[in-house]
Amino acid sequence: MVIDKIKKREEPEEDKKYSKPDIPVGKWIKCEKCKEILYKEIVRENYSVCPNCGNHFRLSSRRRIAQIIDEGTFEEFKLNIETVNPLGMDSYIKKMETIREKTGIDEAVKCGTGNINGEKVVICVMDGNFLMGSMGSVVGEKITYSIEKAIELKLPLIIFSVSGGARMQEGIISLMQMAKTSAAIAKLDEAGLLYISVLTDPTYGGVTASFASLGDIILAEPHAMIGFAGRRVIEQTIKQELPEEFQTSEFLLEHGFIDKVVERKDMKDTIHKLLLLNK
Amino acid sequence: MPNNLTAWDRVQIVRAQDRPTALDYIDNIFDEFIELHGDRKFSDDKATVCGLARLENTNFTVIAQQKGRNTKENIERNFGMPKPEGYRKSFRFMKQAEKFNRPIITFIDTKGAYPGLGAEERGQGEAIASSMFEMSRLKVPIIVVVIGEGSSGGALAIGVGDKILMLENAIYSILSPEGYASILWKDSGRAKEAAEVMKMTAKDLLDLKVIDKIIKEPKGGAQEDVKKMSEEIKKEIVSSYLSLKDIDEDTLVASRYEKFRNMGEYIRK
Ligand SMILES: [Zn+2]
Q1: Are A87 and B208 in contact (CB under 8 A)?
Q2: Mean of the pLDDT values across residues A155-162?
């Protein structure tokens, strides 16, 4: 298993790490898995995968779309909606403003149409940089809108998930987005259209327990953490240590909950192949 | 019951040992009830009770989350926290209800789906997702009654219905107040504060259009008079059923879709 390989490499040569005090800020990135210091450009050219250990770095929605969708074909759905902050939490609005300023993304999912090697699809890509990709009213509405658009346009649907789950700051309304999106997927199913769900690191809680688990085909990136309850909550509940590979993509594959683990460099071609085989 | 109870007061009421459980109501509400077991795949989840019932000459399929009435029962019932097989079992009975054109009644009362090793291995997330997915398109009327604690996806998994009723002191929320405080403020000790901001009471949820109707509890709470409480629930189940029974299948499913489709608090910029 690849996990073993990662473990063996976990201890980097200390002097290698510290003998370069003049590492320019912003040009270098440290791999959290193998602790190797890597040149950002090299990582980027390698699909944001560590060339040393194969660790898949988290991707922004923008970069994910660039990797999956043919250049120049992505057309974003223009919904222009924002939450009304149903619990009236001031800190929530402030937090979102800060994130928007810092990252330039306005919500935790980007949706639209685009081509994958020439095959047109509806695609939703979640973004972990925005409140951990959590699902509130806006995410729920954008996903539901996209599903309905797929039905209207008779197109396959692809959703890339990365999420901490339902968004706490919107309380029960966030919870209801699970039912809303799952019902929309049922409608897509009735329409006989293909839905490929791709799970990336991390996918948890209300997203795992709704649309992310409802794909006709479910793919996952290697070593992504995927589950319903978080590891810590489970350990506290059962008062027992969990196996190391617990809740990884490979663990889910082993237990029959995903169809295939696909490396990032192969993701686009794999989805393309599946689209053709489902035609 | 005084209306000035705080959300936290209600949390205490629904968690009290003397709070009536689903089976207490089921015994009182229905003229007949027979419990049936198992998901036919793995096991029989004891936190989920399923069965067939008769009420005023109509047969119903009943799905309920069952807490224990004492420590021994609670251990047996896994404190009312279903495992994936609970959702698969309830789905089996819902599908059967559809086959025999029987309306469905679900009773929600859970702290949440069970967070355990086996539960994750057997796909807790997938079980909850599939339950909502299938409920959204079932061709028979579904009446949901939140009787105690309705926490997280574990509650909503059997909550995708045409009429959502809620007892006056019941709570329905994204997570327990403890879990909420722990995630949002990294301090589960602030649960009381969390309960007040979460909008988890029946009145809050009626305002947010998450539920359709509040069922009043006897003075002092449901435990004071289980018979009377059951009568009230029965009355509301019957009237909900009467309002749904003549709706044709397609309209029923379409309105259920719209009901959940419309949930979300956003504005166009
Ligand atoms: Zn690495």
Answers
A1: no
A2: 98
